[in-house]
């Protein structure tokens, strides 16, 4: 364990207050800041019981991604999409089953608007289509042919990993490997969309933290799945609870919640 280290990650914006101040300092109008605040309260419902492998609340990661998106020139729609980017993969709409159903998309559009929701849906589609290796898109089309919507989605993905890389050293060993893989892919994506500045930032952070061992071995084994799920008993409606148990059994072979 590197107990003598004086370089501590996770020093960026992680909560809503500083994010709103950041947007104000960047010149966003009050109406835009109120939209972000409204989206945040909705995101709190989506990830109220979701935690990263490091035990960081997922909502903090969502805010961090939105902050990075704003810091590096993102539009209001890109910031709103960044704040809710994982809604269709891990968000809780009453039942924690991934997917972008019509009901979910209608609800999202009421909260963040049509343009931002299209980006969130694009983020979900890219995960479904490419999995952990979004850089495969580099082989399919030249950067000049990339639609603006896909360019925005890739920009949000890069900002996502800029926030995630600082979480790597506090995560389980399994999650550390995944974050490292995502980061390597996002370095290529950043160059692909012409954001060499972000590629350099990712490379610097990856080099800084990849070999640092902050956690005792026993602690580094926890929560390999990357998030904590509460027991089905917390559900207030019967059918969503049944659907979640079925989905859990289908994915893990057991209806029990992993401790």
Structure notes:
With 259 residues, the chain is an all-alpha fold. It has a single domain (16-212, 222-228), classed as Hypothetical protein af1432 (Orthogonal Bundle). Helix content is 57%, strand content 0%. It has helices spanning 16-25, 30-46, 58-71, 76-83, 87-90, 102-112, 114-130, 148-164, 173-192, 196-209, 238-252. Helix 4 crosses helix 7 and helix 4 crosses helix 8 (148-164). The chain starts with 15 loop residues before the first helix and ends in a 7-residue tail after the last helix.
Task: Give the gist of this structure.
By secondary structure, this protein is an all-alpha fold.
List its traits:
mainly alpha; 11 helices; globular
Please describe the topology of this protein.
Layout lengths: L15 H10 L4 H17 L11 H14 L4 H8 L3 H4 L11 H11 L1 H17 L17 H17 L8 H20 L3 H14 L28 H15 L7
Helix pairs in contact: 1-2, 1-3, 2-4, 3-4, 3-8, 4-7, 4-8, 6-7, 7-8, 8-9, 8-10, 9-10
Series of secondary-structure elements, N-terminal to C-terminal: HHHHHHHHHHH
Mean pLDDT: 83
User: How would you name the oligomeric state of the polypeptide chains in this document?
Assistant: single chain
Number of discrete helical segments = 11
What's the number of extended β-strand segments? 0
Classify the fold: give the CATH topology: Hypothetical protein af1432
**What is the correct CATH architecture?**
Orthogonal Bundle
Number of domains: 1
> Could you give me the name of the CATH homologous superfamily?
Hypothetical protein af1432
Poorly predicted sequence stretches spanning 5 or more consecutive residues: 1-6, 231-236
């Amino acid at each position: 364990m590197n107990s003598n280290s004086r370089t501590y990650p996770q020093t960026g914006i992680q909560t809503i207050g500083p994010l709103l101040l950041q947007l104000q300092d960047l010149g966003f109008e009050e109406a835009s800041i109120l939209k972000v605040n409204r989206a945040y309260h909705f995101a709190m419902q989506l990830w109220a019981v979701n935690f990263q492998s490091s035990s960081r609340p997922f909502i903090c990661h969502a805010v961090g991604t939105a902050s990075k998106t704003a810091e590096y020139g993102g539009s209001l729609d890109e910031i709103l999409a960044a704040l809710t980017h994982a809604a269709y993969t891990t968000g809780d709409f009453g039942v924690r089953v991934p997917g972008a159903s019509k009901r979910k998309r209608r609800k999202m559009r009421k909260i963040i608007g049509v343009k931002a929701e299209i980006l969130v849906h694009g983020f979900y589609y890219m995960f479904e289509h490419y999995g952990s290796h979004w850089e495969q898109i580099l082989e399919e089309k030249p950067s000049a042919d990339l639609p603006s919507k896909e360019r925005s989605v890739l920009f949000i993905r890069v900002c996502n990993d800029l926030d995630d890389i600082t979480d790597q050293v506090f995560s389980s060993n399994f999650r550390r490997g995944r974050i490292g893989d995502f980061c390597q892919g996002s370095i290529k994506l950043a160059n692909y969309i012409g954001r060499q500045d972000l590629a350099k930032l990712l490379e610097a952070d990856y080099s800084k933290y990849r070999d640092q061992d902050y956690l005792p071995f026993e602690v580094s084994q926890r929560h390999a799945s990357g998030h904590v799920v509460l027991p089905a008993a917390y559900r207030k409606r019967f059918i969503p609870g049944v659907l979640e148990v079925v989905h859990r059994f289908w994915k893990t072979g057991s209806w029990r919640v992993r401790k």
